[in-house]
Amino acid sequence: MSKSKMMKRILGALIVVVIAVVAVCARGRQQQEKTQEFSPLQKLGYTERLIESFYVDTVDSPKMVEAAIIAMLKTLDPHSVYTDAEETKELTTPLAGNFSGIGIQFNMNNDSLYVIQTTAGGPSEAVGIQPGDRILSANDTIISGAGRSNSEILNILRGPKGTEVLVKVLRRGVTEPITFRIIRDDIPLYSVDAAYMESPTTGYIRVSRFAEDTGNEVAEAVKKLKKEGMKDLIIDLEDNGGGYLNPAFDMASLFLQPGDLVVYTDGARVPRQDYKVKGKPLMPEGRLVVMVNQNSASASEIFAGAIQDNDRGLIVGRRTFGKGLVQRPFPFPDGSMVRLTVSRYHTPTGRSIQKPYVKGEGDDYHMDLYNRYMSGEFMSADSIHFADSLKVETLKNHRVVYGGGGIMPDLFVPIDTTMYSDYYRDLMANGIFNRYAVEYVDQHRDEIKRNYQTESDFVKNFSFTPEMVDALVALGEKNGVKLNEKGLERSRDIICAVTKGLIARDVWDMNGYFRSVNPVSRGTYEKALELVNDKELYDRLITGSGKV
Question: Which pTM value belongs to this model?
Answer without folding.
Answer: 0.80
